[in-house]
């Protein structure tokens, strides 16, 4: 159900009155240009007021600098336009007559102010009576059938999901428009089974990102199944907390393993690996030097984007202490500092800066990232936590914008001790693939915020893990004993795989572990002696590899962990042996059972060829049995999502 604000209802009443009363069909059109060069200004925001006070509409200029409002009642109006780097300009007492089009052109002068003095101002309510590309409009009836969050400006075109049709203002023609969605996800290829004799080592980086689960939840609660590449099974598993033992002897994390049967393939077995990061109480956290890097471009103009972002960051600001400080950098057509680094003691100043932010313009994300790093370094805390929190839908389209350019930019910056975390927002044009890479390369974590409760979970409940890294470049390398294991497959972590030689290379980047974080990994195993065929290579002609005698060993595998202290560049090594002491799945711990339920759900959503005997009812039963203590209700919510997905699948 679409929820309309008072502003939206007022717009509807205007549009409705215009349609019911053909005599009230005036319009205002014009161009926005640079006063000095006379060049057209694209993506400028144009606000429409009636009687100089009540804002009743807003639009963005197209690639030719043109805008238009139509279906206006006769009367006096004001037009105000804003664009980053220019002084706001307004024209009052524009007279609109019935059946007449009134021209109102505006020339903007360069502001001349420093970017840190600029305030990005535009509208925050959805307006659907325009199309940026062709000048066509969305009808009032269509407005009632679509989610306004899908009507967003993207690089001068209208990105939206139109269920019916749209009108061409120039000829009054109605033309059908197909569903339109520009969300981007990286292709995922399921990990294959590896022959333990020919390929005994498996190496990967940990992943504490949780974005995939909340994004999958967004799809399902909107009554659609997610596309397979939106389902990263390791992120779904790691969304949940597990009751692993706390670390001892000053280790940054503990290691727990279980060897049991595979619930989705009775012929297979599995190894469940759990890491528990040490918990640092909030009062004992080092001082924070935070830079909020906020996307305020036109694509962020919907209730599930910038307004939700501001509400979530207010929750984080509430937790700030006097020793913490935050700066706010924004980017749209250009980047600017709207709040210099400010102590948590002055929350009112931070709230005020957040409140004034509104969306409009194109998206110069690369420029914003550079300015955010510059701001963080200027306020660097040698013994503190220095972090940029990038909040965006990922739709960068000006300046440095390709995935390769952006990741190289961040790789170059991270060596200075400033980490980058990413918060994703929105639908329709969401760029998941880009944001995941940015967080990975920036030594930070990545979360998708689909509602205010998720914002609270990420920015309040899990703030220590979100903000404080206790171990960086954490890698795992598993060596399988072919006397016990014929073949193995890592469930998930497809984009976290490393070359075997990367394990000992301290220059190779890997994942970070935050305070209190848990990390879970699952290996599916084909036991030795199985007659199941496994893809393999021919015996080598010139290479003879002699394995150590293993037939008498009771070891299934050896797990090696490498990690670095947050301020160090040399890694430390921990080893852990898994013995052949398999327990039936019915006797497995709640941790193992629930993780397997989530993994099996991911296999079903991906329709993986490795899903075996999986079905939704089995997942539901397994999750209910392993629900355990669920004070926050996340596991109960998971069960409901599986039930919904089962119905949607039918």
List the helices and strands and how they pair.
Blueprint: H1 6-20, E1 26-34, E2 45-50, E3 54-60, E4 66-72, E5 75-82, E6 89-96, E7 101-103, E8 106-108, E9 137-138, H2 140-143, E10 152-154, E11 157-159, E12 165-167, E13 174-176, E14 194-195, E15 201-205, H3 211-221, H4 233-238, E16 253-261, E17 269-277, E18 288-295, H5 306-318, E19 325-331, E20 335-343, H6 347-355, H7 365-378, E21 385-392, H8 403-413, E22 419-424, H9 432-441, E23 446-448, H10 452-461, H11 463-467, E24 469-480, E25 485-490, E26 511-514, E27 518-527, E28 555-564, E29 572-579, H12 590-606, H13 616-625, H14 634-649
Parallel strand pairs: 1-7, 1-8, 18-19, 18-21, 21-22, 22-23
Antiparallel strand pairs: 1-4, 2-3, 2-5, 5-6, 9-12, 10-11, 12-13, 14-25, 15-24, 16-17, 17-27, 19-20, 24-26, 24-28, 25-27, 28-29
């Amino acid at each position: 159900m679409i929820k309309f604000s008072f502003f939206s209802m007022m717009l509807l009443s205007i549009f409705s009155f215009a349609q019911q009363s053909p005599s009230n069909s005036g319009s205002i059109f014009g161009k926005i240009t640079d006063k000095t060069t006379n060049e057209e200004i694209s993506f400028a925001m144009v606000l429409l007021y009636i009687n100089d006070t009540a804002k009743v509409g807003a639009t963005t200029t197209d690639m030719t600098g043109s805008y238009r409002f139509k279906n206006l009642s006769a009367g006096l109006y004001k037009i105000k336009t804003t664009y980053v780097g220019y002084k706001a300009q307004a024209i009052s007492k524009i007279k609109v007559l019935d059946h007449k089009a009134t021209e109102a052109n505006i020339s903007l002068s360069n502001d001349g102010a420093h970017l840190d003095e600029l305030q990005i101002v535009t509208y925050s309510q959805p307006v659907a009576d325009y199309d940026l590309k062709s000048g066509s409009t969305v009808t009032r009836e269509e407005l009632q059938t679509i989610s306004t969050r899908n009507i967003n400006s993207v690089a001068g075109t209208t990105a939206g999901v139109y269920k019916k049709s749209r009108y061409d203002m120039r000829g009054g023609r109605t033309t059908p428009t197909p569903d339109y969605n520009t969300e981007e996800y990286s292709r995922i290829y399921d990990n294959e089974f590896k022959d333990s004799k020919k390929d005994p080592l498996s190496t990967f980086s940990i992943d504490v990102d949780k974005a995939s689960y909340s994004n999958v939840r967004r799809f399902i609660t909107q009554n659609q199944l997610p596309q397979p590449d939106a389902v990263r099974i390791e992120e779904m598993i790691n969304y949940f907390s597990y009751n692993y033992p706390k670390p001892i002897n000053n280790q940054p994390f503990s290691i727990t393993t279980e060897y049991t049967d595979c619930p989705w393939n009775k012929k297979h077995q599995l190894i469940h690996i759990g890491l528990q990061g040490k918990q640092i109480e909030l009062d004992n956290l080092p001082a924070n030097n935070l830079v909020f890097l906020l996307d305020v471009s036109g694509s962020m103009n919907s209730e599930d984007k910038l307004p939700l972002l501001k509400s979530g960051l207010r929750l984080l600001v509430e937790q700030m202490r006097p020793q913490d400080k935050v700066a706010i950098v924004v980017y749209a057509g250009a980047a600017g500092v709207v709040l210099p680094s400010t102590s948590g003691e002055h929350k009112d100043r931070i709230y005020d800066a957040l409140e004034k932010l509104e969306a409009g313009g194109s998206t110069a994300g690369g420029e914003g990232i550079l300015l955010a790093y510059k701001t963080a370094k200027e306020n660097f805390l040698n013994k503190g936590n220095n972090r940029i929190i990038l909040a965006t839908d990922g739709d960068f389209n000006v300046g440095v914008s390709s995935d390769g350019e952006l990741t190289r930019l961040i790789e170059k910056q991270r060596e200075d001790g400033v980490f980058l975390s990413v918060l994703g927002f929105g639908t329709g044009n969401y760029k998941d693939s880009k944001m995941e890479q940015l967080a990975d390369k920036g030594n930070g974590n990545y979360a998708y915020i689909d509602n205010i409760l998720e914002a609270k979970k990420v920015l309040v409940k899990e703030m220590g893990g979100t903000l404080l890294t206790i171990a960086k470049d954490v890698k795992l390398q598993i060596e399988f004993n072919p006397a016990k294991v014929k073949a193995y497959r890592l469930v998930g972590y497809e984009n976290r795989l490393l070359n075997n030689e990367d394990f000992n290379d301290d220059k190779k980047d890997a994942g970070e572990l935050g305070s209190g974080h848990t990390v879970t990994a699952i290996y599916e195993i084909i036991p030795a002696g199985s007659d199941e065929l496994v893809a393999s290579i021919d015996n080598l002609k010139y290479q003879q590899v002699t394995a150590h005698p293993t037939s008498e060993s009771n070891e299934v595998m050896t797990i090696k962990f490498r990690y670095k202290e947050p301020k160090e560049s040399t890694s430390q090594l921990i080893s852990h042996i898994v013995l052949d002491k398999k327990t039936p799945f019915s006797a497995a711990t709640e941790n193992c059972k629930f993780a397997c339920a989530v993994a099996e759900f991911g296999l079903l959503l991906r329709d993986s060829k490795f899903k075996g005997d999986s079905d939704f009812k089995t997942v539901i039963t397994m999750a209910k049995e392993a629900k355990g203590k669920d004070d926050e209700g996340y596991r109960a919510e998971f069960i409901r999502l599986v039930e919904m997905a089962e119905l949607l699948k039918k």
